[in-house]
Design brief:
Length: about 325
C-alpha cells in the first residue's frame, strides 16, 4: 500500500493559460521522501477523487513537491477541483512518490519530447540531466505562447542549446519534426515522450520507423482514450491463485469491480490503465490488454495485466492474488 502523507499548499500560481502550479511542502517537523525525475504522486481530493500528477521540480530540492495541473474542460473533476477548490494554506493528503517513468542509467544522451502539459515529468528530467552534465535535447510542443508554461525557467543558461520550444501558431520552420530529430540522434540515445495519447503515438511510431529499438523508447500517458466496447466482450472467470476462489466478471464490469464486490481488495488509483498501481501477475489465461501502462513487449508476454481496465480473451484467468 502506498504511504500517505500530509502536505500544505505553500503556493498556488498560474503558470500559463489554464495551467496552475502548486508548491507542496511538509507540515511542521515532518520531511518529504526523496524522489527521482519522472516520479508522480497521487493527490487525494474532495469527493474521494484521486489523481496522479508528475513532480516537475528539481529532485535535489529538499522538502518540496511541485506539480502543475491543466484545467481539463472535459475532465472527470480532478483538475476542476485543483483549480477551483484547492487554495494556498490547504492541507492535502498525497501518496509518496512512485516512478514508472525513470531516466535510463548510463551516460548516453536523452531526447525528451513534451506535448502540452506533458512537460511536467520531463522538466524534472532536464534539471537532473543539466546538473549531471549529461547530453539532452528537450522539444516542447505547445499550442501557443499563452499555453507555454515554465518559459522563464527553460531559458536559464544551464539549459542553453538544449531546449527547443515549438508552437502550433508559430512559423512553419520552427514546427517539431520528429523524423529529423530522431534520425540525427546518437545511436545510444534514449527517447522520453509525454503528452496526449495521439501525440505520444505519433512520436513513437516515427521513432520505430527511424529504427529505434523498443528498449530505448519511454513514454508516460496522463489519461487513456475511451476503449470501444463491442458485442465481442464476454463474461469470464477470475481465479485467485492463493485460495482457488472463482469470481465471475460480467460484461461491462471491470475485474477490479468484480473482485471488490466479492470482498477482494486490489490497490487502484487512476482506474484507466495509466498509472500501474494495480498491475497484477497472470499465472494462466490470456489477458485482453486495454491499458497504456505496459509496453507492447510486456503486453505480448501476457504474464501481467491492469485489472482496472483490461479483460480476458480466455474464459478463465488465474491471477496471483
Amino acid at each position: 500500500m502506498t504511504q500517505l502523507l500530509k502536505v500544505r499548499v505553500a503556493r498556488k500560481s498560474m503558470l500559463a493559460e489554464a495551467i496552475c502550479g502548486f508548491d507542496l511542502v511538509p507540515l511542521v517537523r515532518e520531511s518529504l521522501p526523496p524522489f527521482t525525475p519522472g516520479a508522480h504522486i497521487d493527490v487525494h481530493l474532495p469527493g474521494g477523487i484521486i489523481r496522479q500528477y508528475s513532480l516537475c521540480n528539481d529532485s535535489a530540492t529538499p522538502d518540496l513537491y511541485r506539480i502543475a495541473v491543466l484545467r481539463e474542460a472535459e475532465g472527470r473533476g480532478g483538475s476542476a477541483a485543483m483549480h477551483e477548490i484547492v487554495q494556498e494554506g490547504d492541507v492535502l493528503t498525497i501518496g509518496a512518490p512512485r516512478n514508472h517513468f525513470p531516466l535510463a542509467s548510463g551516460t548516453g544522451s536523452s531526447i525528451l519530447v513534451a506535448g502540452g502539459i506533458g512537460i511536467t515529468p520531463l522538466l524534472a528530467m532536464v534539471q537532473e540531466l543539466a546538473s549531471a552534465r549529461r547530453g539532452f535535447e528537450l522539444h516542447y510542443c505547445t499550442r501557443n505562447e499563452a499555453r507555454t508554461a515554465f518559459r522563464e525557467l527553460l531559458m536559464e543558461s544551464r539549459f542553453a542549446g538544449g531546449v527547443h520550444i515549438h508552437r502550433d501558431d508559430g512559423p512553419a520552420d520552427q514546427r517539431f519534426d520528429p523524423a529529423q530529430v530522431l534520425q540525427q540522434a546518437p545511436g545510444d540515445a534514449h527517447l522520453y515522450v509525454c503528452g496526449p495519447g495521439g501525440f505520444i503515438q505519433w512520436v513513437l511510431d516515427t521513432a520505430t520507423q527511424c529504427g529505434w529499438s523498443e528498449d530505448r523508447l519511454h513514454r508516460e500517458y496522463f489519461s487513456a482514450a475511451a476503449v470501444s466496447r463491442t458485442g465481442s466482450d464476454a463474461a469470464f472467470d477470475v481465479v485467485l491463485a492463493s485460495s482457488g476462489k472463482v469470481v465471475r466478471v460480467a460484461v461491462g464490469q471491470t475485474i477490479v469491480h468484480a473482485l471488490t464486490t466479492a470482498g477482494v481488495e486490489v490497490a487502484t488509483s487512476c482506474e484507466q490503465g495509466v498509472c500501474g498501481t494495480c498491475v497484477t501477475r497472470v499465472l494462466d489465461g490470456v489477458p485482453d490488454h486495454r491499458d497504456l501502462f505496459l509496453t507492447p513487449d510486456e503486453q505480448a508476454a501476457n504474464d501481467q495485466l491492469t485489472p482496472c481496465c483490461s479483460r480476458s480473451k480466455s474464459p478463465r484467468l488465474v491471477l496471483d492474488l
